[in-house]
């Protein structure tokens, strides 16, 4: 089973919830794989202080043109919708940072002047802490292509473990890549007008993907009740509420988990897993 923790905006407590759920799940159910797909800023490893096992480089395939074969027909640049290969004075020039590795230009090149070469986009790091396998993707600085790296991290989901995905914030392509195969999504938000605005967008995406989902509200008591009213009106379950507790903010800024330091919250995280298990089992 794969559970994704997502949020319409950054800074809502998504990683706090993903890491604490991974800890409680490992204690209750055994092996857990935590996949940090927030590849521009993966920080689950700050809280899950595991031993680093290894790292792997992630490459994508990009085109390289053999000028001795190229007839300067322009078919490749006409094909590329990303403008990653363009004809400049007849000669095709590859802009590798814009290439989405679709392979199309290679296919349309009749004289076979294009072959594919590896282009590095980032790293995958592997950590282990007890029954938690933490796998995170780290996008190279300047690389705009996070979906292929997120896809590479997701391929490492455990076969017989609970998988928890810490998704990137927002509602664009990287988020969709991270959550599209999840069995259940927790949408994390805050009780503020901005929180509500971004939650509405995240709900729309989850509904379009036809996913089961619920809302977790962080810092309850710090804003107003609009998020609660929206969830009630839209019949969206609120699966977790974390109060506006200064101690939690202090733990976060010190790289510490709620579960290890504030045992009074343990039951709330345990109940999240129980509720999701019931929903998945009943196919609701
Ligand atoms: S499609 Fe092939 S032959 Fe035509 S311009 Fe591109 S690389 Fe050259
Ligand atoms: S592989 Fe696809 S995205 Fe990259 S240059 Fe070729 S057509 Fe464009």
Task: Describe the fold and architecture.
With 284 residues, the chain is α/β, with parallel strands linked by helices. 35% of the residues lie in helices and 31% in strands. It has eleven helices and eleven strands. The chain has helices spanning 14-29, 44-47, 75-79, 104-108, 146-154, 173-179, 193-208, 226-233, 246-253, 258-261, 266-282; strands at 2-7, 32-36, 51-65, 85-88, 91-94, 114-129, 132-139, 162-169, 184-189, 212-220, 238-243. The chain has a nine-stranded mixed sheet, sandwiched between helices. The longest helix is centred in the last third of the chain and has 17 residues, at 266-282. The protein is elongated. The two termini are 15 Å apart. The model has no long low-confidence stretch (mean pLDDT 94). Residues 65, 70-76, 92, 108-109, 111, 113-114 line the site of one iron/sulfur cluster.
Number of helices: 11
Q: Unreliable stretches, pLDDT < 50, 5 or more residues?
A: none
Structural class: alpha/beta
Please indicate the percent range of residues in DSSP E strands (runs of 2 or more).
Answer: 25-35%
* Main pleated-sheet profile: 9 strands, mixed
Rg result? 22 Å
- Major beta sheet, strand line-up: 3-6-7-2-8-1-9-10-11
Oligomer: single chain
Distance between the termini: 15 Å
- Which molecules other than protein and nucleic acid are bound? iron/sulfur cluster
Listing every helix as H and every strand as E from the N terminus to the C terminus, the arrangement reads EHEHEHEEHEEHEHEHEHEHHH
The averaged pLDDT comes out at: 94
Helicity level: 25-40%
Number of strands: 11
Shape: elongated
């Amino acid at each position: 089973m794969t559970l994704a923790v997502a949020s319409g905006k950054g800074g809502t407590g998504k990683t706090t919830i993903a890491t604490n759920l991974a800890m409680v799940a490992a204690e209750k159910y055994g092996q857990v794989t935590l996949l940090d797909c927030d590849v521009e800023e993966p920080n689950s490893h700050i809280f899950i202080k595991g031993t680093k096992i290894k790292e792997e480089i992630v490459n994508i395939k990009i085109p390289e043109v053999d000028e001795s074969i190229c007839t300067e027909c322009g078919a490749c640049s006409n094909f590329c919708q990303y403008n990653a290969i363009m004809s400049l004075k007849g000669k095709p020039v590859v802009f590798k940072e814009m290439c989405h590795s679709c392979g199309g230009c290679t296919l349309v090149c009749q004289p076979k002047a294009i072959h594919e070469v590896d282009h590095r986009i980032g790293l995958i790091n592997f950590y282990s802490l007890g029954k938690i396998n933490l796998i995170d993707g780290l996008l190279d600085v300047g690389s705009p292509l996070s979906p292929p790296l997120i896809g590479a991290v997701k391929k490492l989901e455990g076969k017989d473990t609970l998988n928890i995905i810490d998704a990137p914030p927002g509602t664009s392509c990287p988020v969709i890549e991270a959550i599209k195969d999840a069995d259940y999504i927790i949408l994390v938000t805050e009780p503020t007008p901005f929180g509500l605005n971004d939650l509405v967008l995240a709900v729309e995406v989850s509904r379009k993907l036809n996913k089961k989902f619920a809302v977790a509200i962080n810092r309850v008591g710090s804003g107003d009740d609009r998020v609660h009213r929206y969830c009630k009106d839209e019949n969206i379950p609120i699966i977790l509420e974390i109060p506006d507790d200064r101690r939690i903010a202090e733990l976060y800024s010190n790289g510490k988990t709620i579960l290890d330091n504030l045992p009074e919250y343990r039951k709330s995280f345990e109940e999240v897993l129980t509720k999701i298990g019931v929903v998945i089992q009943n196919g609701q």
